[in-house]
Amino acid sequence: MKRAPYEPPTQSVFGQVVDAFLMLALVLVILYLPLLLGLAGGGTTVKTFDAPTWEALGQNATMAAQWEKLGFDPAKASEIIGKRFDYEFSWVALAVTALVIVGYFVGMLRWSEKEYRDVIAERFGDDAKADPRGPTA
Fold first, then answer.
1. What is the pTM of this model?
2. Does one domain contain both 72 and 102?
């Protein structure tokens, strides 16, 4: 007996608009949450120079000329050159991120299992469920 072709569930235009705004809101929350909780980046470190000169700042003649074209002298440039971002790496944050991604993927597979099974049954037939190795000759 042949099955009817799989028909995905339909959604109204209003539902699609609500979904789009919900996804936008979730993306914004997910992007700003680490900033609001102070979890993004390790901050900055500032190296101070007692008597800033281009040589003390590690700038060669070409670099110094470019700084001067931008209107900076060694004292002003030392504030920018001395400010360094602190890139910390956290194994715990990496593990939590991986756990969230894998958990989301597993959850989506579980919640969508019926739809996946319907699509596979339509494409490969009901016999594919009986024997995962496929038909034997």
1. 0.44
2. no
